[in-house]
């Protein structure tokens, strides 16, 4: 019988633990407890001195999406005479006997205009992908603004068709 590990008299019982490991491990990096990627890509460096956020909380991502939609609709806000305030809330407060679907948004009158409240959790629960989420946010905001300004949502939509 030949010795699988040269220089060992025990027949190479621990030969599987010998060797040099170099380079990254195969497969994808471990994401413990769903916190997202960690390490060098999130640390400060020459291209990102203040570091790059490796993970953005869901509320912050949703707020950024709503602000992008509102910035695209900015020309309408300067033309329309009615003051409109848009607020993002987590979820509506509903009575215990509520049996209908949870609303995605509501319009409430305020002195001098209207307030549109958009509910993040009901919208995100109805969407499977980021593209779906973007479409639903666009449609909710356009529908509510059209309701307040008495216009068609298609007239407000600046996106190419």
From TrEMBL:
Residues 1-58 are annotated as: Disordered. Pfam families: Zincin_1. CDD domains: MMP_TTHA0227_like_1. Coiled coil: none annotated. This is Metallopeptidase family protein. It comes from Aeromicrobium fastidiosum.
């Amino acid at each position: 019988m030949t010795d699988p590990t040269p220089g060992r008299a025990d027949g190479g019982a621990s030969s599987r633990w010998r060797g040099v490991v170099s380079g990254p491990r195969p497969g994808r990096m471990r994401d413990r407890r769903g916190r997202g990627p960690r390490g060098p890509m999130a640390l400060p460096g020459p291209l990102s001195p203040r570091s790059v956020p490796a993970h953005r909380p869901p509320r912050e991502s949703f707020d950024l999406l709503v602000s992008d939609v509102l910035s695209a609709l900015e020309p309408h806000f300067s033309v329309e005479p009615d003051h409109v305030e848009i607020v993002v809330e987590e979820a509506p407060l509903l009575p215990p006997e509520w049996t209908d679907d949870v609303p995605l948004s509501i319009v409430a009158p305020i002195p001098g205009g209207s307030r549109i409240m958009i509910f993040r959790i009901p919208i995100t629960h109805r969407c499977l992908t980021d593209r779906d989420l973007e479409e639903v946010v666009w449609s909710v905001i356009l529908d509510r603004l059209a309701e307040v300004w008495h216009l068609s949502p298609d007239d407000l939509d600046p996106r190419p068709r």
